Amino acid sequence: MIDVVIVVVAFVTVIVLENASGIVQAGVAAHLGALASLVSVAAVGSWALGLPKVQLKSYEARGMARSAGLGGLLGITAWGLNVFIGYDITGSGPVLLASLFMIGSVLVRLLMLRLVRGLYGLDIPVRNVLIYGAGTTGMQLALALRPDIGTRVIGFVDDNKVLQSVSVAGLPVLPVSAVAAVAQYNDVKRILLAMPSVSRPKLARIARRLGDLGLEVHSVPSFAQLVGEERLVNSLEKVLPDAFLGRKALDETLMDARDHYAGKCVLVSGAGGSIGSELCRQVLQCNPARLVLLEASEHALYQIQGELSEIVRHTTCQIVPLLGTVTDRRSMTAALETHGVQIVIHAAAYKHVPLVEGNVLAGLVNNVFGTVTLAQAAAAVGVDHFVLVSTDKAVRPVGTMGATKRLAELVVADLARSAQALASPSKTVFCMVRFGNVLGSSGSVIPRFQEQITSGGPVTLTHPDMTRYFMTMQEATQLVLRAGAMAQGGEVFLLDMGEPVRVADLARRMIEAAGYTVRDTETPSGDIEIAITALRPGEKLTEQVSITQRQSPTRHPKIFVAEELGLSASELQNALGQLRKAVSKGDVDAARKGLMHWVAKDLEALAVDCENPTGQTAGHAG
Predict the structure, then answer these.
(1) Which is more confident, 335 or 244?
(2) Is 57 marked active-site?
(3) Fewer beta carbons within 10 Å, N or C terminal of the chain?
């Protein structure tokens, strides 16, 4: 009906304009006959082209071309009437008729659309948004949002200065500097990032900058990506940790070490941690009779129990989840006796340097006295083997975490000397395993760098020349299990980890492996910046794996035993007594000073021992 009415109006307008120039000579009958013909063509053509079925909100995209086609058809009809019937009208009449019809058809529908939107939107709040990116995706997004009654696009934001002087999809393109003012004036709370071709780190930086303005930021893919013709996102590639090792990784299996754990009851403390959980998986490959999971975190224990229970579903191995802490002597002794534990692998510890540095007493209680409690309980019950998992930060420590781990090593070494002095065949074999940074473990550089790369950087380093020894999770756990199988008592097992790796080189390789470029002075347009901060408290520029140079080979070519006697039994008992008093008083300063004092005494004893290889020193008496 609309198209029919528009035809009538357009035809009358043409007649009026032609009469004003004194050209039209035809009578009323001729005009009515021509009008009837045009009305019939308009009705049939409109129905055939499907114009009545086009929704008003999608008319711009689908209906305008059809209206233009129908207008052309009406113009051709008017021309035919003039030629074949003798309808007296000038040659511009059909063109004018077609143009008027198309203009009227479009305007009427746009007015109707505005009216309908106004009625629907009476009770609907309108949300004003900005689109960041005035390219193809941004323009398509603006057109797609136009039918949405509750959304109004205020304009575009773009870094391209050329686009800032033009209008895109009928909307202005604003500079980034104007976002804050425009958002405040128009009550804009949300901005849409329509730049799918921009790398993910750059998008993250833009999002952070806009978020600082109090805007809610959303990123949208391109329409080509949604239909599968392009990649949906530039994702950070999954990187294998051993790709950054700087040497060939040990790829051997446990081999003869399996027999040491087969049919035994093994307890792993800290079983829910990254190292502890991998130790549990490796132990299960040795077919133990029972695996006791000791963990202080309920959630971590639940997670690892569920995973391991699936692994042993078709075996006879029993998984025992044990919620508790290594500082509880009564529960540790009861657990060892109740489950008949034969091998203890002690991996529970607070290991994050800055956190332990800021929580000295907690680190001391857990790392030192927790080791004392579990190790003494193991000796009292008669456990066959006790393996302490240690770290290279215990070598010449400068912070609390390293000092607590070194003192834990001294505790185990002292118990090993005491056990060797016993003639009983049921004595416990104590040993220690010391290794460097484990790639992929919680809190290590690779997960931290991956998070920073994903968020657009910067990747933070505490010093450009910092170096670290690295090993894979498999190497670390195999070293622990092999050490337990080879130990005779009192050994500190080390892994030949090759040359230390510059952490800055590791960060650069990770950025490049993710498909991005490093942004520095040479490449200011790069994706990710490497930012240098400062050494944190308790952190060293370089690490060592052995305190002395005295090392003995083992039957494995890459595993060595370090000879490090350290404090005497009397000195160690004196140290533990002083530290217990500091903990009971809650004296953080005394605890820190005591730790560093006894670590220094340990180094003095080791220096004397190296000068006198026979070991007959006062530091080792008793």
Answers:
(1) 335
(2) no
(3) N
Amino acid residing at 548: T
Q: What are phi and psi of 153, to 5 degrees?
A: -80, 120
Residue 136 identity (one-letter amino acid): T
Residue 290 in tokens:
């029972």
> Can you give 86-154 as a three-state secondary structure string?
CCCCCCHHHHHHHHHHHHHHHHHHHHHHHHHHHHHHHHCCCEEEEEECCCHHHHHHHHHHCCCCCEEEE
DSSP string, 533-584: --PPTT--SS--S-SSS-EEE-SSTTEEEE----S-HHHHHHHHHHHHHHHH
Kindly report the number of other CB atoms within 10 A of residue 480's CB atom.
26
What are 295's strand-pairing partners?
323
Q: What is this structure's pTM?
A: 0.65
Hey, what are 562's tokens?
A: 């370090």
Q: How many residues does the chain have?
A: 622
Q: Secondary structure of the chain: what % helix, strand, coil (to 5)?
A: 50, 15, 35
153: exposed, middle or buried (Cβ count in 10 Å: 0-12, 13-18, 19+):
buried
Is the pLDDT score of 27 beyond 60? Answer: no
Catalytic residue among 202, 264, 351, 393: 393
- Name the more confident of 576 and 147: 576
10's CB contacts (< 8 A; 6+ apart) are 74, 97, 100, 101, 104
Whether a cis peptide bond, with omega within 30° of 0, leads into 458 is: yes
Nearest Cα to 166, choosing from 154, 156, 176? Answer: 156
Residue type present at position 321:
P
